[in-house]
Amino acid sequence: MCEPKLARTTNENEMTHTRRAFIQSGLAMSALSFFPKAGSAATPEFQVMTAQSGAVQLAPPDYPKTEIWGYDGKFPGPVIRVRQGARLQRRLVNKLPQATSLHWHGVRISNAMDGVAGLTQDAIPTGETFDYDFAVPDAGTFWFHAHNRSVEQVARGLYGALIVEEPIAPDVDRDEVLILDDWLLNPETAQLDPDFEAVHDRSHAGRRGNFVATNGSFNSTLNVSQGERMRLRLINAANARIFVLGLSGLKGWVMAFDGMPLVTPSEISEPIILGPGQRADLFVDVIADEGESAHLVRLEDGQGFAQTEFRVTGTLASAVRDVPQVLPPNPNMDVPGLEQARRIRLNMEGGAMGNLDAAILEGERKTFRQLVDANQFWAFNGTVGMTEKPLASLSRGETARVEIYNDTSFPHAMHLHGMHFREVLEGGEVGPLRDTLLMFGGETREIAFVADNPGKWLFHCHMLSHAASGMMTWLEVA
Ligand SMILES: [Cu+2]
């Protein structure tokens, strides 16, 4: 696909949220709270969000618009910003031609609001609504996306960023949400490839796009000043693409992964790898000179591509700034009790070039050849897809350790709903608190978490073609 210059489109995602604007909006909100609206104790009025089709100019202007599905028909979807601890209420109206549901990825939410069709709620039929209503316990970068026929609905654009603000705004000059995605577009028509169940995608690395974008823009560009400190909220919303990212003209620190602050900011000296569903919060200082450009660089096949360009059009401060203060921790970030923890084993099997000879599909043993005929390719512990019984039934408050063996030839991004986990590293150390673990072929890794959130929690590969063809299980906490 050719790449002529496309004028930068403005959208909600590219709005600058300065420290001053944030403080002002905070003041306005606290002033308002002295004057409650009459009748506010009555049935809450949910803000409506409508899942519907739309058309956006994704490809360069000489191509037609791309038909998408989006929240309120838009892409990128709305950026929802709320304060930590706030209650979030949205009435989802389904105007899609198929049933849907809405998952709040990474939010340690009550189970009934988790939005997993078939596990925590029924899919919302066309023309119907569902009220999502929950408190947001953690500050950080989260996102929301469809969770029924995800492999199609997320690929069509049904997602958006959920930003939960810390009580005291961190010391940055601006705050930018950068949603990274790839689209599989027909190079003639710029329309989405409608084969969401392609055998090759399901059996190999998932549905990968030929058109990579940030916030829906293939030439995402922001004007910045030298010396500016930006918070970049990176969200990998792709069905299967692993983003490997570097910086040029920027000095940066990773402040948080998957919404959860790191204990110490880690200066970025090597590429940041984000699997599908994963997020990273970076603080970056613009060090490129005025008149030059800095970049968020996508590294691929030994080459660098501009994922987002930062044009340096002014100078804010020439002095080098101090290492940023850590972000305040969220509640309940510890994972104690590793020694006595319940041990669970998860073998990931299948796929092309794999070792799976046979597995259980819908209660019956099938050969790999029979699985292929059913367009199913992956198994967890010898079973394809969801089972009647959970992978484990945990007591509330219990610590669990899951040892995961990726006995396949492909990477997988394992996402646990409802609770974050820490990786158990060699020597008993633990890694950062996360909700999605990217695992490469042949690896054995172990995660640990406190089962403190009751309910039925999905545990699946976030490469959505893999989830649709076998890589899904669940845990019960009671
Ligand atoms: Cu996978």
Descriptors for this entry?
binds copper (II) ion; mainly beta; copper ion binding; 478 residues; 5 helices; 7% helix; six-stranded mixed sheet; single chain; 32 strands; metal-binding
Average per-residue pLDDT, rounded, comes to 91
The overall strand count is 32
List low-pLDDT spans. 1-42
Approximately how much beta-strand content do the residues carry? 35-45%
Task: Determine the structural class based on helices, strands and strand pairing.
Answer: mainly beta
Helix content: under 10%
* Distance, first to last CA: 52 Å
Small-molecule components bound: copper (II) ion
Morphology call: globular
Largest sheet, strands/sense/barrel:
6 strands, mixed
Order of strands, main sheet, comes to 10-9-12-17-14-15
CA gyration radius, whole angstroms = 22 Å
Number of distinct helices? 5
What features would you describe in this structure?
- With 478 residues, the protein is mainly β.
- The protein contains five helices and 32 strands.
- The protein has helices at 19-32, 150-153, 199-203, 368-373, 464-468, and strands at residues 47-56, 66-71, 80-83, 87-94, 102-105, 129-135, 140-146, 159-165, 174-183, 211-214, 221-226, 229-236, 243-248, 250-257, 260-267, 272-274, 279-286, 293-300, 303-315, 342-350, 358-361, 364-367, 378-380, 392-394, 399-407, 412-416, 421-424, 430-434, 436-439, 444-450, 455-461, 472-477.
- The chain has a six-stranded mixed beta sheet, with no helix packed on it. A six-stranded mixed beta sheet has the order 23-20-25-30-27-28, with no helix packed on it.
- It is globular, with a radius of gyration of 22 Å.
- Residues 1-42 have low confidence and may be disordered.
- Copper (II) ion binds at residues 412, 461, 463, 466, 471.
- This is Copper oxidase.
- One of its GO terms (molecular function) is oxidoreductase activity.
- Keywords: Metal-binding, Oxidoreductase.
- It holds the Pfam family Cu-oxidase_2.
- Residues 57-167, 177-286, 372-477 form the Plastocyanin-like domain.
